[in-house]
Amino acid sequence: MRDEYFSLVFALLISAPVYALDVNVVGLTEGKAVVSINHGKARTLKAGETTAEGVKLVSATSDAAVFEINGKREVLGMGQSIAGNFASSGAQSVTLTADSRGHFVSTASINGGSVRVLVDTGATLIAMNQAEARRLGVNFLKGQKGYSQTASGIVSIHRVKLDAVKLGDIVLNNVEASVHEGDGPPIVLLGMSFLSRVEMKREGDRLILTKRF
C-alpha cells in the first residue's frame, strides 16, 4: 500500500501540466490562416509561424489549415475551431522556422502585449524603438540613459527591465532591454538578454529554443 501511495504521488509530480486553448479559423488563403486564439483578436499567421501561445501553422490552403499544438497536428476548415486542454511537454520550449531570408521571426508577448520579434544573437539586449515601447506600456523614460552602437551609428537608448517575455512555451521574467530613440529598430530584436537564458539548437531551417533558467 505504501509503495502504491508513493507511485501515485510520483506520477502526479511528473505528469505534464495542461492548459486550456481555443483556436478558431476565421479566414483561409494559400499559405496563410486568419485565426482567433482564446477568443482574442483575429490575427493572420503564415505557414511555419508559431504564436506566443504555442500554436504553429504548418500549412494552409483555401480549404483547410494544418496546425501543430505541442506536437499534435490538427486540421481545421473555414469556421471550424478546436478547444480543449493540451498537455505541455514539461520543458518550456519553442520551435521557429526560418523565413526565405534565413531569419527567425515570430510573435512573442512582452508585458502581456503581442509583438513581432527577430532572433538576433548580435544584439546584447532585447531592443525596440520608442513607439513600440509606448505601445507595450514600457516606461522607458525611467530607465538608465546610455548609448548603443548600431548599423546606423551611435544612438541614445534607455535601459529597462521587462516584467515578462513569452515566446512559445518559454516565459522569462525581469529581462533586460534597451529602448532606442527614434524609429529603429523596425522590429523588436530578441537579443542575448533573452537568448542567453535558453538553449539554442539549429536543425536545418528550424531553431529550437529551450528554457535553461
Would you kindly provide a written description of the structure presented here, covering whatever features stand out?
With 213 residues, the protein is mainly beta. The protein has two domains: 2-87, no CATH class; 93-211, Acid Proteases (Cathepsin D, subunit A, domain 1), CATH 2.40.70. 11% of the residues lie in helices and 55% in strands. It has three helices and 17 strands. It has helices at 2-14, 130-135, 192-195, and strands at 18-29, 32-37, 43-46, 55-60, 64-69, 72-77, 81-87, 93-97, 105-110, 113-119, 126-129, 144-150, 153-167, 170-180, 188-190, 198-203, 206-211. Strands 9, 10, 11, 12, 13, 14 and 15 form a seven-stranded mixed beta sheet that branches. It has a four-stranded antiparallel beta sheet with strand order 3-2-1-7, with no helix packed on it. The longest helix is centred in the N-terminal third of the chain and has 13 residues, at 2-14. The model is unreliable at 1-17 (pLDDT under 50).
Question: Would you summarize the structure shown here?
Answer:
With 213 residues, this protein is mostly beta strands. The protein has helices at residues 2-14, 130-135, 192-195, and strands at residues 18-29, 32-37, 43-46, 55-60, 64-69, 72-77, 81-87, 93-97, 105-110, 113-119, 126-129, 144-150, 153-167, 170-180, 188-190, 198-203, 206-211.
